[in-house]
Amino acid sequence: MSGLLGNKVITQIGILVNDIDKVSQAYADFFGIEKPQAIITDTLDKAQTEFNGAPTLARAKLAFIDMGSLQLELIEPDEHPSTWRNYLNEHGEGPHHIAFEIEGMKEKIMLLEGKGFPLQQKGEYTGGRYAYIDTIPALKVLVELLENDK
Description:
By secondary structure, the chain is of the alpha+beta class. 26% of the residues lie in helices and 37% in strands. Strand 5 (60-67) and strand 6 form a beta hairpin.
């Protein structure tokens, strides 16, 4: 498989919201599904969150809705500096990223940065890691890389 990611299957669409409980309920009502339970991302010591190259205390409430082959991720960021907070402040609520599962996170980040797509934010979660790549000038949306431990 060619291409920069080695994968062209979108696994997730991330949507920024101001009130995750309200929006989760709206999705539940709209699709006739159970309201997803929100979780909160790990603290800095566990998540090792970096934004624009520096550690950040940023956390977010997340809710996941499985939509067949695709997952919707609702994101309500806290006040600390992050891609989520900046984007919400600048653009308001709505789509933030499209995500792809990849292998070899460090290598993919280096490859993308070499092609002019800088790393914006990265962190760890139980079972894997994520990275947001600034592809907005070319693709008009952020790309998130997701690498799950085997």
